[in-house]
Amino acid sequence: SPASPASRAPPSSEGGRSWTLSLRCGARRGWRFESAVPRRQVGGGHRPRPQVDTSQLLRRRRKQHEAPLRPFFPGSEDHDEVVLRPGCTIPQPRRYTTRDWFHVLRTWPFSKLWRRISLAVLTFTGWATLVTALWSVKKPACMLGLVPHSLLGSALGLLLVYRTNSANDRFWEGRRMWERVVSSSRDLVALMLAHSAHVGFERVQRTCRLVSAFSLCLSEYVVGPKNKKHALPRWHLPGEEEDFIAVSSIPPCRVVQLLLQETTQISNSEDGLFTNRERSQLNQMVWNLQRAVGTGERLVQTPIPQSYVRHTSRFLTLWLATLPFGFCHLIG
Fold it and tell me: Where is this region: Disordered (predicted)?
C-alpha cells in the first residue's frame, strides 16, 4: 500500500538512499505518509500527529536550498547596499569579487553614492576645466605651485582619516549592540522554554511575542519608522498592550517593563529547579535589552561634531579650488 514504506522502521545508513528515492517516488504519485513516531499523550488522551504532504515538504526544502535569497529591500543592485548571498543558511552579505568589476562600472551612473556626491564632483570638474581654459588663453607669468598643496595634504589626510575611523567605529558599535540584543533574546527564550513545564505555555508564548516586539520597537525607535529599510516581522499583542506601548515616548523601554512583569511573577517550583537564581538570570537578560536602548540612543544622539565636519568641508573645498592653479601650467 502507499503508506507501507513509512510504517517501517527508520532506514539504516546502507538503505538511506533507497529510502529517500522511495519517498520521492511516492511524493510524485501523490501519496501521503504518516510518521512512524509514536503518538504523544496530551491531557490524558492521545492526539495523532497530523499527516505531512511529502511533496510539499520536498518542494519547500528545494526552494530553500536552490532559490537565491532576495535582498532586504529593492534597489540594492548597485552594490551600494547590502545584498545577501544565495544558498547560505546564515544570511551573509555578498562580497566583492574580480568578476564584478564590469558590473560595478556599468552601474556607476545609477549608484546612490554617486547621486549624493555628483554635484560637488561636477562643480570642481567644471571649475578645473574653466581655469585650464583661461590659462591656455592668457598664460599669466606667475602661477601657483604645488608646494602649498603638498604641505597641506598631510593635514587634510589626517582630518579625513579621523572621520573615516569614527564612522567605522560607530558602525561596529551598532553591530555589537544588535548582537547583544539577539544573544539576550535567544538566552531569555531558551531559559523560559527549559522551564516551560513550570512557567506555563501561555507565559512562554507571551514572552516570545514581547521579545519580538522589543526588536521591532528598538529598530523603529533608533532609525525612525519612515527610515527603516528591512522588512521587520510583525508581532501580535492584545490591543490594550499595543496602545500601552505606542503611547510611550520610548517604546522599547515599555516592552522591557512588560517583560519584567512576566519574569518577576514566576514563583519558585516545588521540585527546586526554578528558584531565585533562575529568576535573577531572566531579569539580567531583560536588563541587557534595556542597556541596548541606551546604546542606540548614544549612537543616534552623538554624531561627529558639526564644527569638525564643517572645518573639514571648508578645508577640502579650498584645497580643491586652488589645485587647478598648480596643475594647469603643467598639463597645458
Answer: 38-60
